[in-house]
Write a structure and sequence with these properties.
By secondary structure, the chain is an alpha/beta fold. 43% of the residues lie in helices and 14% in strands. This is SDR family oxidoreductase.
Length: 263
């Protein structure tokens, strides 16, 4: 049955920019109150504060927290706040949109400037493993209930490689594996877990990839729609897929790319 999202809550990890921000805005327009976690400098915090007020203009609650979403201490401190703020309703939608990792190569001719174990571990912990830890803690706290939806943002990099993307590619592959396992274990509770595979999307994290402009032009030429994926495309998918209590669509990598991979 299709249901209204109005009056529910959405937790966005990585809420201050890119896909996370677009999803928060889209959900707020649908009448969903927003909990946002982001990790920013002063400029980023100011932008997050503006976004928070824009969401509140839709008549919903919006509470942003500037904290490291990959930290166990952050979860420990914020979960009681989330319980209090949601007033017993729990979190209807959890969005994992954390894009912070190293872009260093695995191998260099002289060994200088190549990936270290610390950087590899950090990338996978932030971009993949933290999904598991947040889901565990939210479920244990009773904040994820029957009908809840969990979304992780992946990319074609989970199965393909390109220069500078090795650690992130590994993280995306691990993330998709975590999605399948969480889907299996949460199915008896009626909670759906899926990964959304966006096409090449202009976001701050993409801009950090070397030669990203050439990649964007290549993807645009390939896409049947002759344009890149926009953060708003992904946001609309989250809103659409969340409008049901069913957990029958679960454990998938769902393409939100306008057919980019078809060509």
């Amino acid at each position: 049955m299709i249901t209204s999202l109005e009056g529910s809550w959405c937790l966005v990890l990585g809420a201050s920019s890119g896909m996370g921000l677009a999803i928060a805005h889209e959900m707020a327009r649908a009448g969903v109150s927003i909990l946002g976690v982001h990790f920013d400098t002063t400029e980023g915090q100011q932008k997050a504060a503006v976004a928070q007020e824009e969401m509140r203009a839709h008549g919903v609650e919006a509470h942003f927290f500037n904290a490291n979403a990959a930290s166990a201490r952050t979860r420990e401190e914020l979960l009681p706040r989330f319980e209090e703020l949601t007033g017993g309703k729990g979190v209807r939608v959890l969005v994992h949109s954390l894009a912070f990792g190293t872009l260093l190569p695995y191998v260099t001719p002289d060994g200088e400037g190549s990936l270290t174990s610390r950087q590899m571990n950090m990338t996978l912990d932030v971009m993949a493993h933290s999904l598991v830890y947040w889901t565990q803690d939210l479920f244990t706290a009773g904040l994820l209930r029957k009908g809840a939806k969990v979304y992780a943002m992946t990319s074609a990099g989970g199965a393909r490689v390109m220069p500078h993307y090795g650690a992130v590619s590994a993280a995306k592959a691990a993330l998709e594996s975590h999605v399948r396992q969480l889907a299996l274990e949460l199915a008896p509770s009626g909670i759906a877990v899926n990964a959304l595979r966006a096409g090449v999307t202009p976001t701050p994290s993409m801009e950090r990839i070397p030669d990203s402009e050439r990649l964007a032009e290549y993807a645009k030429d390939l896409n049947p729609h002759r344009r890149l994926t926009r953060p708003e495309d992904v946001a609309e998918a989250v809103s659409l897929l969340s409008r049901t209590d069913s957990s029958w669509i679960t454990g998938n990598v769902i393409g939100v790319d306008g057919g980019e991979l078809l060509t």
